[in-house]
Amino acid sequence: MKPTVFIARRIPAIAHHLLEEHCELRVHEGLMPPTREELLAGVQGCSGILSLLSDRIDGEVCEAAGPQLKVISNFAVGYNNMDVPELARRGIAVGNTPDVLTDATADIAVALLLCAARNFGRASQDVRNDVWKTWQPLGWIGKDLVGFGEPKKLGIVGMGRIGSAVAKRMHLGWGMQVLYTARSPKPEVDKELSATHVELPKLLEESDFVSLHVPLNDETHHLIGAPELTLMKETAVLVNTARGEIIDQDALTEALLSRSIYAAGLDVCTPEPLPADDRLLQLDNCFLVPHLGSATQATRDAMAERAAKNILAGLQDQPLPYRISI
Ligand code: DGY
């Protein structure tokens, strides 16, 4: 009998094709994530679970699945939705989809930086709402990325794969001077990008653009709150393509409202989606997109392939090719 695998949403076909030869697939259909009840019911009797970042995966899910559960793979590089220590304690192999979304996500960070710095939110609304009447010498003025004095400074919070890819784009393409935080200095990055490892307060004080690239965990929850926002320049732009909870969103809303920072570009927020009456949605200095960092066809296909390969390896008691270890 083939093992059963629960897939928490329909994902690119390559994953379904790779898996269906070896497994019975139970797919949660529809746009919306499974409710907790649907998830717990859906995984019953499964040996593998292919989860999404919106599915909370913990001991209760393992209990609901049963003792035959061997492997869980997230269709994402981030895995803050998974209780990895608990899964490891239960001997479940856990995987994710690293590397393949680095460039797509870095591109979105750059796009958000540009859009927020150059007032795309307000400007695009004005075009659609028939507010645009003529070329305006004083209208839709934004921030420069290049020129007029010293090179602009880009602060990368978390110089991992995606952080480095953003730094590379902005240093080589826009000539920005890169500051970064990381657990320890990265000599190869320092050399390639003339980058400088600094502590977070210095990065926030000095950067014209700040882009967040840390994973969400207990240490990084609300890493950017009111005290940190206060350190930033009034002219600074904050970009987040990591996880919404890394920013204290109320504090960010206040900072944008009071113009204590210039603008924000957000691919992620808390919660996702935002309630229709959220104040962030009213702000013309906040440019938001719907968590689409990895949303290109080739990237999503590659993520699907990696997630499926993790499941197949786990079902065969092989080491996962893209495993999460603690
Ligand atoms: C991830 O993979 O963690 C992204 O946030 C979704 O593509």
3D structure, described in words:
With 326 residues, the protein is α/β, with parallel strands linked by helices. The chain has 2 domains: 115 residues, NAD(P)-binding Rossmann-like Domain (Rossmann fold), CATH 3.40.50.720; 187 residues, NAD(P)-binding Rossmann-like Domain (Rossmann fold, 3-Layer(aba) Sandwich), CATH 3.40.50. It is built from 12 helices and 12 strands. The strands form 2 sheets. It has a 7-stranded parallel beta sheet with strand order 8-7-6-9-10-11-12, sandwiched between helices. It has a 5-stranded parallel beta sheet with strand order 2-1-3-4-5. Helix 1 packs parallel to helix 12, helix 2 crosses helix 3 and helix 5 packs across helix 7. The longest helix has 19 residues. The chain is globular and about 70 Å long. (2R)-2,3-dihydroxypropanoic acid binds next to loops.
Give the gist of this structure.
The protein has helices at residues 13-20, 36-42, 59-65, 84-89, 102-117, 120-128, 161-174, 187-193, 200-206, 226-231, 249-257, 297-315, and strands at residues 4-7, 24-27, 48-51, 71-74, 93-95, 153-157, 177-181, 196-197, 209-212, 237-240, 263-266, 286-288. It is α/β, with parallel strands linked by helices and 326 residues long. Helix 10 (226-231) links the parallel strand 9 (209-212) and strand 10 (237-240).
